[in-house]
Structure formats: structure tokens, C-alpha cells
Design brief:
alpha+beta; 3 domains; 8-stranded antiparallel beta sheet; Four Helix Bundle (Hemerythrin (Met), subunit A); globular; Alpha-D-Glucose-1,6-Bisphosphate, Chain A, domain 4; 6-stranded antiparallel beta sheet; about 400 residues; Pdz3 Domain
């Protein structure tokens, strides 16, 4: 890599043909796959784009040139940059792969521009390394290298705070620490509520993401939690992120998903043995779901998963899930058409299989190793985790029905 005070040039070999690499620079999903956290990209000359990061930094501009699969040129203006610059990406065939030539030009003179150039150099270096990774191994280095506290999360709101005797209503509640990881080694316990991390106030999971910016595995930080009414501060070493190794093969992934789903459905059907329809409709409190509503939530989540695979195929993955699957009116709509326990279980099982069939036949994703790795990472890391967390919720609702 060479640079002057006015221009930055980076060259990166990528193990994929230009037609496949082009999408990484010409679609919203493509930019998110390797560089940024949020993206909007209108793929036409004169179109607008915006890339942003959870750190709060963003850049925006227009598409100056778009020649598939050879070139993408952008007018570039980042937050707090002294002025606009230009980014040009050229893709050239090299053997069985692609040589990516990126030029970032238009930097001026002076201290502000020197800082801007240095930040651009760092960002593009890390990004290009990740671009190579997602096309060779599929691994997103932002995830692989991201440090972890080593906790499972649980809900936290005003009602739960009162039940726990915690004097705050905002924070991140620990469901349980992960065995052998930083949180457990530091002595954190189930239902501890994290309120400070490395000197930063934590009001929810979004604050945790922000606080983790710039951190890496092995860093030691101070974490403050409420354990009941007592505030405790501990030193914690951030853990490296474990991940499962698996082949990036659609047939393998679909079959592994089926195996996980079969285990989960077996556990759910056993859980509902001997449970009456009335018991499954009981709400422990007005705010809490009945066992049937939990099943409806699982069905809605599977529908979201099915749509998510389709969005991957179309290079149009949605960025923000909001409260999808948690809207009570949606759960009641599902229950109105699927009112009984057997019907709900059968519908959930069908939804799972529909998603697996789509994965199996999603030939458009064969060249999207980064997408396949991310799908598998989320599913294989803790198989059936989402379903099993809600099984505890179902048990609680059923027990409350039988006591009431």
C-alpha cells in the first residue's frame, strides 16, 4: 500500500470472480457484509448512498460511476471530514480471483486532513482484510475478533427491577454467565444487572455495543452491576469469541438445521404433553404471555427467519428487526387461525422445514460465503437457544396456570 498526503491506494487479492465481488461494492447488503453496520445504496449513476457504523460515524454521497463488474466510483463525505473526497474501486480478473484496487483521493493539507487520511487508512485496511476473509473462508473478522463478556441475556424492565430489588430501571440483565468466560471468572451471577462498562453508562444492549467499540479479546475493563440493591464493581478480562467450524455447503447446513429442529420440536411436544387448552391459554399476569402466545412468538420468529433467507438471496437483508415477533396483536392473529396446541406445534414445525427447504435450494447464496458463514454462526453456536429460552417461559406459564 502506498499513500501521500493527498491520496490513499490499497490493493487486495480476493478469492472470487469480479462478478461476485462487485456485489460487495454495489449493494446495501454487500457493504454491510464486510465494512459497515448500516447501509443504503442506490445502484445507479447519480444514485445516493449512506454507510454508517454503530460508533456513530457515517459517510454519504452519490454514485459517480457504476460499471458492472469492473468499477464503482463514489463521491465521499464522512462525518467531521474537512471536506469531500472521492473513492474509486476497480475490479480486475486475476487467475481464478479478483484484484481489488481502491483509491481514496482528494485529501487536502493540514492537521485535520492528516487525521482524516490516517483514519481512512485504518478503516480501509481493516475492511479490505475482512473483504478477503468473507470471500475465502466466509468468516466475518469483525465477529471473530470481537470480545465477549460471556453472558446470556434476560429481559429487564421496571417490573423486573422491582421484583429484584434493583434501584434502576435501565440496564442489561444477566440470565447466566457462560462457563469459563470472563463474566463467570469475574464472579458475575444470574440476575445481576449491568449498569456501567469501562466507565460508560449502560441502559440497554445498544449501549453495550457502543461501549465495546475499540475493545479486543484480552482487554481488562471494570464492570459495575446491581445485585439486588447492592452495587458491585469488578475487573473483568474480555473473552475471545468461540465459534463453530462447519462447511459452507447449503445441503449440509439445511440438514444440520433439520437435526437441531427435530431436537427442539421433540422437547416442545414433550413439554406440552398433558397440558390442557385452558392451561396453555392462561396468562400469569396481564403483561406476561400464555404458553400458546409463546408458541405463536416462535412461529412469528420462524416466519421472520424464512423471510430473512429470502432477503439474503435478494441482497436485501433488513437491518433492524425492531420488535418483530413480539407484537401481541400479531401473536393473537396467529392464535386466531391456529387455536389449538397440536395445530400450533404442527405449524411451527412446518415453518421450520420451509426455511430449511429454502436454504437447501438457495443456489444464489453459493458464492456468498460471508452470508453462509453468518447464517451458520448464528444457528450452530448455540443450537436451538432461542427456542429453549422460551421453553422456560412456557414452563413458568403452565405452572402458574396449575397453581391458579
Amino acid at each position: 500500500m502506498t499513500s501521500t498526503t493527498e491520496e490513499l491506494s490499497i490493493s487486495q487479492a480476493v478469492e472470487a470472480i469480479p462478478e461476485d465481488v462487485f456485489y460487495a461494492f454495489a449493494t446495501s447488503q454487500g457493504w454491510r457484509d464486510w465494512l459497515c453496520d448500516s447501509a443504503r445504496f442506490e445502484a445507479r449513476e447519480g444514485g445516493c448512498y449512506q454507510l454508517s457504523w454503530t460508533s456513530g460515524w457515517y459517510t454519504a454521497g452519490t454514485v459517480r460511476e457504476l460499471v458492472k463488474p469492473e468499477k464503482v466510483a463514489l463521491a465521499w463525505f464522512g462525518k467531521d471530514d474537512p471536506g469531500p473526497t472521492a473513492v474509486t474501486v476497480n475490479l480486475k480478473s486475476k487467475g481464478d480471483g479478483t484484484q481489488v484496487e481502491l483509491r481514496h483521493s482528494g485529501f487536502g493539507q493540514g492537521e485535520e486532513w492528516e487525521k482524516c487520511l490516517e483514519e481512512a487508512r485504518k478503516g480501509w485496511q481493516e475492511g479490505m482484510e475482512n473483504l478477503e476473509s468473507i470471500f475465502s473462508t466466509g468468516k466475518d473478522l469483525r465477529i471473530v475478533r470481537r470480545p465477549m463478556l460471556g453472558i446470556f441475556l434476560n429481559d429487564f424492565d421496571e417490573k423486573i427491577a422491582k421484583e429484584l430489588g434493583v434501584p434502576v430501571e435501565k440496564g442489561v440483565r444477566i440470565d447466566r454467565p457462560v462457563e469459563g468466560m470472563g463474566a463467570e471468572r469475574a464472579g458475575l451471577q444470574p440476575s445481576d444487572v449491568i449498569v456501567e462498562f469501562d466507565g460508560k453508562t449502560i441502559r440497554g444492549f445498544a449501549d453495550m455495543n457502543t461501549a465495546f467499540q475499540g475493545k479486543k479479546a484480552g482487554d481488562v475493563v471494570q464492570v459495575s452491576v446491581y445485585r439486588g440493591s447492592e452495587k458491585i464493581t469488578v475487573e473483568m478480562e474480555l473473552s475471545s469469541r468461540p465459534y463453530a467450524e462447519f462447511p459452507l455447503d447449503l445441503n449440509y447446513m439445511a440438514q444440520r438445521f433439520r437435526e437441531i429442529d427435530a431436537e427442539v420440536m421433540g422437547e416442545l411436544r414433550t413439554l406440552f404433553e398433558g397440558v390442557s387448552e385452558n392451561e396453555a391459554e392462561f396468562n400469569p399476569s396481564p403483561e406476561e404471555w400464555s404458553a400458546k402466545e409463546v408458541l405463536a412468538h416462535l412461529i412469528a420468529s420462524e416466519q421472520y427467519g424464512l423471510h430473512g433467507v429470502a432477503e439474503f438471496i435478494c441482497d436485501a437483508q433488513r437491518e433492524f428487526t425492531d420488535e418483530f415477533g413480539n407484537v401481541r396483536s400479531q401473536l393473537r392473529a396467529i392464535l386466531s387461525t391456529t387455536p389449538t396446541i397440536p395445530e400450533l406445534l404442527d405449524r411451527l414445525e412446518r415453518n421450520k422445514e420451509e426455511a430449511n427447504i429454502l436454504v437447501e435450494h438457495a443456489k444464489e447464496l453459493k458464492s456468498r460465503k460471508g452470508v453462509l458463514w453468518r447464517m451458520g454462526f448464528e444457528a450452530f453456536q448455540y443450537p436451538g437457544f432461542h427456542d429453549r429460552v422460551h421453553m422456560d417461559q412456557i414452563r413458568t406459564a403452565i405452572e402458574a396456570a396449575r397453581k391458579g
